[in-house]
Every structure is written in structure tokens, then in C-alpha cells.
Design brief:
By secondary structure, the chain is α/β, with parallel strands linked by helices. The protein has helices at 4-9, 31-171, 175-187, 191-209, 219-228, 230-250, and strands at residues 14-17, 25-27, 255-257, 261-262, 267-271, 278-281, 286-292, 302-305, 310-311, 318-320, 325-330, 336-343. It has 2 domains: 1-161; 241-343, Jelly Rolls (Sandwich). It has 6 helices and 12 strands. β11 and β12 form a beta hairpin. The model has no long low-confidence stretch (mean pLDDT 77).
């Protein structure tokens, strides 16, 4: 027996004489040792009982608290169940309300579509009615205007008829003779109109002649003179063509060139050799105008290549070593370029 509780419960302490076989006996002086030992074991067991009682009490309190918590949980579960039932009822009601709202929305959309269709039909009918009213008004106005015009013509015809009848009566003419006279009066041209027309014709003829000599004051005389002087007429035509070409050049804008360039007829070029000298190649014919833009030709020359032709009869290139303003002209069919304008360049 090793524990106090086992010694107290197992008869270790007894009233028999103390011996090796019975070490817990009280008789024969055994009480001297065993009684204090028994008291000590009793104290230990009593202390354990107290601790166990406290533990039992604490466990009881905890069990009671757990029971209260379980009761509260059961109550909360019941309340939650009630709320769940209410939420389910509310959800069912909301679902029914949502379905009713969807049906109401669909009905509203259908009603709106029907209203729009009705409005469109009404607008179309209103437009048709407006067009019909406008057409009726225009037809009425046209009828009124035609009526007024007809009445005016009728009145005018009656006035003419009365006038002719009066003339016929005064001249002693019959009705048939008066009708014939009326037609003649309608076809006659007033003398004043004839005189004015003649004056206009005379003025036009005078403007055409424009003081030409009597030998050349008709188109026939002019044609005969041209036929007899075809060489002069050809020179005039060529001169006019040349003048037109020059005018065409003068109407074009200037273009700046700073490097080698193949010109086309009608070019107006500002040749800038300030960076480096370069060559300008002329076309087969036409007009080209060129001038020194930066005043650099004296130090960095501009070379004008006539291509397959010549300049002033020289087949070589023209080297411009002075600032100048040049107009080069070569008529179509010719290969000779002439300088009709050469400001600043030696002849």
C-alpha cells in the first residue's frame, strides 16, 4: 500500500499488535509511530477531498454555464428558424412581387410601343392632311389666278374688239373687213421700233469697222488681204503665239532652285548658287525665266545648258558669271534659244 488513501481504506492501520507482518498495528506500542502517520495520511486524503470538491464544484458551475449556453443556443436556433421562415416567406413574397413588376414592366413597354405606333400613324395622317390641304390651297390659288387671267384676257380682247369695231365703223368697213384689218394691225411693226433696230445695227457695224480704211472695212476685203500676204499674216500669228507664251510665263509663280535642275517650259526660277554652282538644263522649246536669287553667280556660276539646241546660235552652255535676270524663249519647231530679257548680263 503506497498511497495514504490506500493505507486508510485497506486496513493498514489497525488495533492489532505492531509487528513486521503488521507494521500499521497500534497495539504493543505501535500507536506511537502509526497514529501520527495515520493522522498525516488522513490530512493528505482530506486535502485531496477538498481539492476534488472544489474541482467538482467548478465542473458543476461550468456544466451549469454550458447548460445555460445550450439553452440560449437552442433559443437562438429557434429564433433563427423563425427568422429563416420569415425570410423564406419574404423571399416568396418578393419573388411574386418581382414577377408582378416584370409583368407590369412588360405591359408598360407594350403600351409605350403601342402609343408610339399610334402617334406615328397620327403624325402620318396629319402630314397627309396637311399635304392635302396645301395641295387644295395651291389648286384653289391657281384656279383663282387662272380665272383672273382669263377675265383679264377677256377684257383686253373686248377692248381690242371695241377699238377695231370703232375703227371699222369710222371707216365704213363691214364686220368681216374689220376682222381682216385687226389682223393686219396685229402683225404690223411700229415705225419707231424699226428705226431703233436700224440704229443698233449701224452702231454694231461701226464698232466692227472701227475706222478701218475703205479698202479694208469689210470682212471680204480683210480675207483677200490675208490671202495675198500670207507671210505677213504668219508672222503676226507667230508673234501673237510668242506673246501668249511670254504672258503665260509671267503669270506663273517663282520657284527656288539650289541644285542641278531640268527646266520645263513656263518655269520661273530663282537660281541660288550661294551653296554651290550648278547647271540648269533647258527643255526642247518654250520659255524659261531665271534670275540670281542670292547675287552669288559672280563667284559661283550658274551654267545654262541648251540641251540639244543653242543659245544665241551657240551650241555650248551659257556660263552666267554676273548677276542677271534672263528670259529665254525658243518657239516650237526651233532649236535656237533667244535672250529676250537679259538684265545684268553682257551681250
Amino acid at each position: 500500500m503506497t498511497t495514504p488513501l490506500e493505507r486508510l481504506q485497506g486496513g493498514y492501520y489497525n488495533s492489532e499488535p505492531v509487528s513486521v507482518a503488521n507494521p500499521g498495528g497500534f497495539a504493543d506500542g505501535g500507536h506511537v509511530v502509526n497514529f501520527p502517520a495515520a493522522l498525516s495520511d488522513l490530512a493528505v486524503v482530506a486535502g485531496g477531498i477538498v481539492l476534488d470538491a472544489a474541482a467538482i464544484a467548478q465542473a458543476g458551475a461550468m456544466a451549469e454555464a454550458a447548460a445555460l449556453s445550450a439553452a440560449a443556443a437552442d433559443e437562438a436556433a429557434v429564433l433563427s428558424g423563425q427568422k429563416a421562415d420569415q425570410a423564406s416567406s419574404d423571399a416568396e413574397a418578393a419573388e411574386g412581387s418581382a414577377e408582378a413588376s416584370e409583368q407590369a414592366r412588360a405591359a408598360a413597354v407594350a403600351a409605350a410601343v403601342a402609343a408610339m405606333a399610334s402617334q406615328q400613324v397620327a403624325e402620318e395622317k396629319a402630314g397627309d392632311a396637311t399635304d392635302a390641304a396645301t395641295t387644295a390651297t395651291e389648286a384653289r390659288d391657281a384656279a383663282v389666278a387662272l380665272k383672273d387671267e382669263t377675265e383679264g384676257l377677256r377684257d383686253e380682247t373686248k377692248a381690242h374688239r371695241d377699238h377695231v369695231d370703232a375703227i371699222a365703223a369710222g371707216a365704213g368697213l363691214t364686220q368681216v373687213q374689220g376682222d381682216a384689218r385687226y389682223r393686219q394691225l396685229g402683225e404690223a411693226v411700229p415705225a419707231a421700233d424699226v428705226s431703233g433696230l436700224q440704229a443698233m445695227l449701224n452702231a454694231a457695224i461701226a464698232a466692227l469697222v472701227n475706222g478701218a480704211p475703205a479698202a479694208l472695212d469689210t470682212l471680204k476685203e480683210v480675207a483677200d488681204w490675208i490671202a495675198a500676204h500670207e507671210d505677213v499674216a504668219g508672222g503676226m500669228v507667230a508673234g501673237i503665239a510668242d506673246l501668249q507664251a511670254r504672258l503665260a510665263v509671267l503669270e506663273r509663280p517663282w520657284t527656288i532652285k539650289t541644285g542641278a535642275y531640268a527646266a520645263v517650259s513656263g518655269d520661273r526660277l530663282l537660281a541660288d548658287t550661294s551653296a554651290a554652282a550648278f547647271t540648269l538644263t533647258l527643255p526642247a522649246s518654250g520659255t524659261v525665266e531665271v534670275q540670281d536669287r542670292a547675287g552669288a553667280w559672280p563667284t559661283k556660276n550658274l551654267t545654262i545648258n541648251p540641251g540639244g539646241g543653242s543659245i544665241r546660235g551657240c551650241t555650248g552652255s551659257l556660263v552666267c558669271d554676273q548677276s542677271a535676270h534672263l528670259l529665254l524663249v525658243c518657239p516650237t519647231g526651233s532649236t535656237v534659244w533667244t535672250l529676250t530679257k537679259a538684265q545684268g548680263l553682257a551681250a
